[in-house]
Amino acid sequence: xxxxxxxxxxxxxxxxxxxxxxxxxxxxxxxxxxxxxxxxxxxxxxxxxxxxxxxxxxxxxxxxxxxxxxxxxxxxxxxxxxxxxxxxx
Length: 89
Known about the structure:
Elements: H1 3-31, H2 43-87
Helix pairs in contact: 1-2
């Protein structure tokens, strides 16, 4: 198996993980309430919203890292593909 194929497999795995994390973050965002409750019965809803926001914030750094890693792998594959094409020219 060549280096280009290994890069393609790792890029696919990282991009798939990125897509799964983006879908998960989107699902968490859908559960978040966007209205303000001022009575005592809304305290539990407020705690749930804070927990959801905390999860969403924790996901932002790994998602950013996966985006950067996916982009670097994609550019590496493109560069390697062009270099191999240049060598066979």
